Structure prediction request, 734 residues.
Amino acid sequence: MLSAVETREPALPWRLRSDLQIQEADSSVVATWTIKDPLRLTYFYAAAEEMVFLNLLDGRTSLNGILNQLRQQFPESEFSAENLRQFLLSAVNGGLLRACVPGHSYRLNEIRKRQLSQATLRRMLSLLTHRFRGIDPTPILNVLDRTIGWIFQIRCMIAGVMFCTLAASMVVARHAQLESELPGISSLFTATNLPMLALSILFVKILHEFGHGLTCRHYGGECHELGLLVVGFMPLLYCDVSDSWLQQDRRKRMLVSAAGIGTELFLAAAFAMLWTVSRHGFLHTFFLNVMIVTSLNTVLVNGNPLLKYDGYYVVSDWLGIPNLAGESRAAAIAVFDRVVLGFSGTLLTRRSSGMHWAMATYGAASMVYRVLVMTTLLWFMYATLKAWHLESLTSVLVVSVAAGLVIAAVRGIRERTRVASSSPEQRRRAIIGLGVVGSLLLIALFVPFPYSVEAPFTLTPGVSSPIYAVEDGAIEPQVSAGKVILAGDLIAVLENAALESAVTQARGDFLVAKARAAALATQRSISSQVASALPAAEKAVLAREARLAKLLQKEQNLTVISPIGGTVFSSRNRPRPRTQLQEGLGWFGEPLNPEVRSVWITRQTLLCWVGTEKDLRAFCLLPQEDIEIINDGAAVTLTFASLPAAAVAGRVSQRKTIPETSVDRELIANRMVSVIPETNRPGETLFGVAVSLVPDSANSIPPLYSSGYAKIRCAPASLASRVWRFVCHTFTFQ
Ligand SMILES: [Zn+2]
Prediction:
């Protein structure tokens, strides 16, 4: 019987490679075999049935022949030829089999070509990560295991968990302090702080990897590689503990995977403690920094099972599904096939339907999350490089990653539709499904929705006249800020003794010259000598008169008078200088403040503004890409830093078309706008937008020159147009 079948059906021309190291793994969940490829140092898992199938491959038996033998050995399992064919394909792709019949090289070639193109794709996707082999850490790990191996005792682990809980509750108790200090964190990402940040991450990562290595060594595993992994531009250490895959005890394997997470959480707890007990300063910020980096990394990246890092391997081992990523992706694709394409053939029935749906959800979530992480990483790199004006460097990366994603999506869909295009009915159903999904996507992309941009602002006097000191002098203020005055009212009197004595001197000189000229005029008939001296004397009179008039004008300028009526607004508070002031020279505070009496004011100093009381303006600074989408009259919500709970309404009244050359001191001091160091020039091109406050809400307005963030409502825009606008502004290839 069997031989008759074999004559009609071709034999499977594959055989299991004899050099593979095959070992029975922990059997508490599913009977699983571990297959180690010593050449490529890769690992595979196989269920009992799959292992028997691989062993049955001898290059002579046909697929149906093997199927019959399997059914005899596992009467309770369901096998289909399609299932076996798929598993065979994955074993061939995985390099577990060798071809034993000549003439099959064309197939091998095809597979190799496919693998190669997949590898290219993977390389494009992983342009962000590079791996460099490093050192063998075994001697260090042996010493560590001898000295601190006791930490693996169960009571030490319980103490560690309690320590982390205690630290977490301490941070929660101080959440208000944490919130107030978090804005300072953004300053850690500035160019000057990046080396410090990189150092702290490196420090955390070294401990993380030694955590893995030590755990692996402690439980008898080998760890022969400690290398460097470059993610983005951030070098990270890695520790090759893949030997722990051969570890029999699933629990120990999970501990090796979880060691990195444990180390980072412990560091987060330790640095949280240090943060709570330290005072403000460099170290305090550093502690907070390490605490945030480690906990965010654990939650978002390393401990997150959606990415294939430590958290994933813990979950995968815990569930007993070695190929969790591949299986869940297959499950997600199967759901896509079934729901969108109406194709029902690809669903493998190895797991319960609840488990299948859970894995499909997990698979889809991890795909979306990976794209999100990649986008965030690119965005972060862009923002970092932008500070150094190197943002065009990111464009190469963005283009390659985006191209990789698009190619992967198109290839996937083409592959799925090829599977589905077996019958016309099937094809129709698939086209309808894709059409519905496509139109839903288009709606999501092109339906406009309102949104707003945020910009820092300072509160300034609106349409007001600036009043400057025209001459140098010691000030005697005559009004104070907030007073209502009339046109012609006195604002301040400046006293300048030198100028006054110069006036007196000039007046004396003029009188002397005038007297001399008059005397000469009466005597000119007596002597010709006198007559010839007269023109010079008259000239001197004119010159001295002009000088006197000029000085008198200056003297008059010492009295500062308001040209218009209105409310007096104070000018900016001048900061106290770092060096001690000399008596009577230099000043700080507001010039019209009565306490600033008799200090020396130099000419061109802004004394105050005079305008109408309700006419205040918030002056916002926006980058070019934002200013283009803001309309005059757009609604604005102003939130002052000093009054975060109360928002003030306003409207855009003016948009500047020339970039601002200086940034207000308040915005620099509060680190709301980055400037070129040691200057007040903005670090990027910024445009000013004046926002007039809506009158009836102007009751509870903080003092002038308060700062905050303005939320400016923009015209509704679709997701696609926003992305397009962003891309256009990011990649202006100039
Ligand atoms: Zn790790």
Q: What stands out?
A: Residues 128-319 form one domain.
